[in-house]
Amino acid sequence: MPAFRRCLPALLLATLALHAGDAGAHLRAGENAEATLDVADASKTSDHPAFVATLARLAPSREQMSAAARMHLDYLQAWQLAYGGDHAQAIPLLERIADKSTDKVMRLRATATLVNILGAGRHYEDAFNRLNLMVADLPGVSDPHARYQALAEAAQMLTTAGQYDLAADYAARAVDIADTPSITCKSNVVALHALYRGGRVEGDDPRFVQWVAECQKAGEMLSANELRADVADSAIRHGRPNEAIAVLERYYGSVLRDEQPMQTSQFDALLARAQWQAGNVALADRFAAAAIRSSVPGEYSEPLVSATETAYFVARKRGDWRAATMWLARHAEADKGYVDDVGARALAYQIVKQQVVASRMETDALDRQNQILHLQRDADLHDAQTSRLYILLLLTFIGTIVLWLIRTRRSQQRFMRMARHDSLTGISNRQHFVDECTAALVEGSRAAEPIALVLFDLDHFKQVNDTYGHAEGDWVLLRVVAECRDHLTEADVFGRLGGEEFAVLLRAATQAQAIERAERMRVAIGTPSGEHQTIARATASFGIACTGAFGYDLDRLLMKADEAMYAAKAAGRDRVTVAT
């Protein structure tokens, strides 16, 4: 506790700075500090300014409070630091409560908040380790609010790791124990968000309307706006930007009032995408810049990726190629960082899962060793048959360990492949493609080898999904990859950059050879062979950039090939265009 008190002045200054006008206020005569803290705790997201003002008023009277009230105040101050994005100060304060407190409820709540901010700060293994400890502590805590918080944080953390079904299960458990309108709202928001991120529902699902209304009635605008962001994102993805703009602009003021950095950045990035899609270039530029400014420093978030892409489109539209090049580089960096983060979260989840399995197996192994020791002691008193039984058990134990080691190694190899390859088509994902191309271009530049970069995008692919469904769309993507592979060599690098956009790096290929091979792939996509038939038909627009014209810099080749591909689309689609 002394070390904790040394940190407290800095924490109080950070909190009091928000409401300097309350600095002279203290605990009122006869006021029950714990009851006041309970009221503030319940309103921390529904009436955040009042919550901060209460903390500022009570902080100077900390030493006059009971031990339970002091611990509650310490937790709420740490929560407020995390809410404002100051994770560096919040983490050690929460760790002290989670590791040292004798109050099971407060320990569970501190651990739940730690899971949230460790995940936000990209400390994924620590976050999942804390999550496992939190889940293990759940049976010993009966307080419904603490149990809700733990289940909700588990669901949100698992959503970020792509474990949508498991996240939805935890969220459903939180819904089952919800006993107030506020907690009911938040639980259903977490569940619905997990379903949306997992592709189980779309933004026009009636549950979005229902729970936006319920959350607004409960005063939980932060949660209501989280669902509105999903609704707007769905509208943008389905080509209805004006619907998204109407939702986002109406509640933009409430997002700014809540002062939650991630939600502010999310709304700005969505508005930028929607305004760009609606043709409002100046507004798209303004909101993209706002999203970039409001992004948490040092974090590669989805809003930052979206905003830098919009800024690139705006600069290119205006003919400002220097700015376009700069934003393309910023977008590539943000996209790489975000993709790395997504992969790191998934890998961290699997690593911690394997560690838990390994720990259980180690426990089982120790139990078996104890059994073996008992058998050894009994062997001195029994005949040779008992000895043979002991040897058989020992061999079984060794065989189990060897089998576990083999399976662990295979799991590691499978996770490495999953991190490098596109889950649907099996070809390189964006990051692995960039890494392979960078190495190939360095090698090619030394030998002055002609190399060509080919980008192609399926024409009107959204119509395929809308007409035949996403399952048929996936079959079309698989067919396109199969057709193209028939025209590639072992030395070529083939990757899916995202959605219906693909790229091929052709080794030892001149411009004429690149055109000829791109034409073969284009024709194969448009007229599939009997071996690769699908209901829907697809065509593709190709753009080519060669090292002979633009050198061996991958970013420059990508930008030029992208320009050529868009030129092919502008010229009528289903054709090959070379960057000049």
From TrEMBL:
Keywords per UniProt: Membrane, Signal, Transmembrane, Transmembrane helix
Cofactor: Mg(2+)
Segments forming a coiled coil: none
GO BP annotations listed: cell adhesion involved in single-species biofilm formation; negative regulation of bacterial-type flagellum-dependent cell motility
Record's keyword annotation contains Iron: no
UniProt-listed SMART domains: GGDEF
Gene Ontology MF term list: diguanylate cyclase activity
Matches recorded under PROSITE patterns: GGDEF (PS50887)
GGDEF domain residues: 449-580
Superkingdom of source: Bacteria
Catalytically driven reaction(s): 2 GTP = 3',3'-c-di-GMP + 2 diphosphate
GO CC, one annotated term: plasma membrane
InterPro entries: Diguanylate_Cyclase, GGDEF_dom, Nucleotide_cyclase, Rev_trsase/Diguanyl_cyclase, TPR-like_helical_dom_sf
EC number(s) on file: 2.7.7.65
Transmembrane domains' residue ranges: 389-406
Signal peptide bounds: 1-25
Enzyme type, top EC level: transferase
Gene3D superfamilies: 3.30.70.270, Tetratricopeptide repeat domain (1.25.40.10)
Protein name, entry field: diguanylate cyclase
Organism listed in the record: Luteibacter pinisoli
